[in-house]
Design brief:
Radius of gyration: 21 Å
Structural class: alpha/beta
Distance between the termini: 34 Å
Strand content: 15-25%
Order of helices and strands: EHHHHHEEHEHEHEEHHEHE
Number of helices: 11
Shape: elongated
Strand order of the largest sheet: 6-5-4-7-8-1-9
Number of strands: 9
Length: 332
């Protein structure tokens, strides 16, 4: 379908996006001495899985497998060399697994415990309180890549596309797009100092720092957009903004509430506070053929469409909505 003017595409996130698959009870577990006789990786996974399950820790086996694999130098338990499954561990390795497992029992997310996580094939550093990218957001990246592939003459006519990401967090979206679009350039903005620092560090780790400008910026402040004009009109605006309805915040899991920045989650009364700022900002920065991609709650397309109809001056049109791979709408 051929579309004219600036376009908005919304992406509906499934239940893993903000609420996660994590449970909701805090652990009463207290540190204990390592159980004697547990000498290999397979036994340790079984041991910690049992403890996690007893204490009500969600994804018990996955958590224990990730922790044991990390200590043994692998990303997943399945990727370990088979000889390591039954090879005796050193006292240092046993102690390290004990320490990391203790963090999991305090409901710290595995991504923070390991200090890194994969997104779109990239290994990114993770650190609290910066928002942890979810698998659903990888689909948002794939949708952007499809757009660039299908509209090469409209997107980035002068070389690769110029992309603005609002709320870059760990840099997952920006760096994924840079890695898969070799001619692209990205301006990544965030109001959080921790996010700015982490995105910069991840860009350097991946050697993508020469094609990304990382800018401390709060899009809710009047006139903040003026700082971006010098880069010229953008081809795309992409964002996974805070979109949780404020009344739903208390229902989020302990892993989220206790460790992740609430400002990266809470979208206000109807989850639209940051979304409307992005929509109001984008036409000032986008090319006439530009597009906006947002990850939103399933309740938002109707709200966004109504809001846009009340703002015809923006010349924005909602042209497409997709659900995530779960195939169902997010229910808080």
């Amino acid at each position: 379908m051929e579309c004219w003017g600036r376009m908005l595409r919304a992406f509906l996130s499934g239940p893993g996006r903000r609420g996660g698959t994590w449970g909701s009870a805090y652990s009463s577990w207290r540190p204990r001495r390592p159980v004697p006789g547990l000498l290999n990786a397979t036994e340790l996974v079984s041991h910690w899985t049992a403890i996690f399950e007893k204490e009500g820790i969600p994804e018990a086996q996955e958590s224990s497998e990730y922790i044991v694999a990390h200590v043994l130098g692998a990303k997943t338990f399945q990727s370990l060399r088979p000889v390591l499954w039954t090879q005796p561990l050193t006292p240092w390795q046993l102690q390290y697994i004990q320490e990391l497992s203790s963090c999991r029992l305090q409901r710290m997310p595995v991504q923070y415990i390991l200090g890194e996580w994969d997104f779109q094939g990239l290994s990114l550093k993770m650190a609290p309180p910066v928002f942890i990218p979810r698998p659903e957001t990888e689909e948002l990246v794939e949708w952007v890549l499809e757009e660039v592939a299908q509209r090469p003459h409209a997107v980035g006519a002068q070389g690769g596309p110029l992309i603005l990401e609002v709320g870059c967090g760990s840099g997952a979206i920006s760096l994924s797009l840079l890695s898969q679009l070799p001619q692209s350039r990205v301006i990544a903005v965030d109001k959080g100092e921790a996010s700015i620092c982490l995105t910069r560090e991840n860009a350097q780790r991946l050697r993508l720092q020469d094609r990304i400008w990382i800018v401390p910026l709060d899009v809710t402040l009047e006139g903040s957009w003026a700082h971006l004009l010098s880069w010229g009109p953008m081809d795309l605006v992409v964002s996974n903004p805070p979109y949780v309805f404020h009344q739903d915040m208390e229902q989020l899991a302990p892993e989220i509430l206790s460790y992740e920045d609430p400002a990266a989650l809470d979208g206000g009364e109807k989850g639209m506070d940051i979304i409307t700022h992005i929509l109001a900002l984008a036409p000032r920065l986008l090319k006439d053929s530009g597009s906006i991609f947002l990850e939103v709650d399933p309740r938002h397309p109707e709200l966004v469409d109504g809001w846009l109809q009340s703002r015809p001056d923006l010349s924005l049109h909602l042209v497409a909505v997709r659900k995530d791979f779960c195939g169902r709408e997010r229910k808080p």
